[in-house]
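Tutorial, part two.
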Amino acid sequence: MKDGPDGKQSHALYSFEIRLEGKMLPTYHRTISMQALSGLFSAQALEIIISANLGQDHWLRGQIGHPEYHFDQNAFFKSRNYIEQNRLLILPALQAGDIRSAQQAFGRLTHAAQDFYAHSNYVLRWLGHFPEGRWPLPAEIDPFDAGLLEVRNCVQERSTGRLNHCHGYLGLAG
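Running the prediction step on this input gives:
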């Protein structure tokens, strides 16, 4: 634990220092992917998956006009669909013997899934279940707490500045 920007104790991984202007740094996408997938894929496959993951942050192809790649701009429904579209590409690619395309689709969907947690207020809301300074380790975060995924009127929430809830997904922190 360390003191966060507000002077309160927090785990380093909960810190907003890992984000730059609301975006996760490539180092973190690579590290998260390596930690989660090492031992499940060959080194070559892992590099293809990670390359596709990082490609989502390409300044031109991935950032401009693609909030669904990143759970940005409250495009939560589109982002969820984007994950599902990539998931649906994997099995047919494998059945056709196109392993590389399957790995690339998997890399793209892992990027969007990672960004859900980095670009939304899900983790902060989940931590709200615990007393300040007594937060569990990052590995203990419930990846899908249905109680946090309420559907509310997004326009009303945006106008009041409260947390946004859109199509069952949390809005952006802030």
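The chain has one domain: 2-170. In part three we will examine how such features are distributed along the chain.
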